[in-house]
Amino acid sequence: MLTRFDRFQLSVAEAVAQRLGQRPDDEIPSLIGALGLAAVRVGLERWTADDSPERDASATPYVERSLTLLQTFLTT
After folding, report:
1. 46 three-state secondary structure
2. Residue 36 to residue 45: CA distance in whole angstroms
3. Which residue of 23, 54, 61, 67 has the lowest C-beta tally within 10 Å?
4. Model confidence, pTM
5. pLDDT (tens digit per residue) in 17-72
6. How far apart are CA 4 and CA 27, in angstroms?
């Protein structure tokens, strides 16, 4: 799972770098990649901590909420 996280972070950094005309290891792409990964981890943590009967069987809604919150924070 840690390897997948690393790959996810790098793929986000690569996408940001391409859009900005930078290298993936430049400051902004690296930072955005790390923020994206942090949002995924928070979503997964909230999913595993949710012991309510309404808990979704998939972590996807939790991760999507974290990413939406991050997007809202970055764009306001």
Report:
1. helix
2. 14
3. 54
4. 0.84
5. 999 999 999 999 999 999 999 999 999 999 999 999 999 899 999 999 999 999 99
6. 21
Distance separating alpha carbons of residues 64 and 27, to the nearest angstrom: 25
CB 33 within 8 A of CB 18: no
d(CA 72, CA 17): 21
Q: Per residue in 13-23, is it b (16+ CB within 10 Å) or e — as a string?
A: beebbeeeeee
CA distance 3 to 58: 21
| Length in residues, the chain | 76
- φ and ψ at residue 25, rounded to 5 degrees: -95, 5
Residue 61: DSSP 8-state = H
Per DSSP, the three-state class of 63 is helix
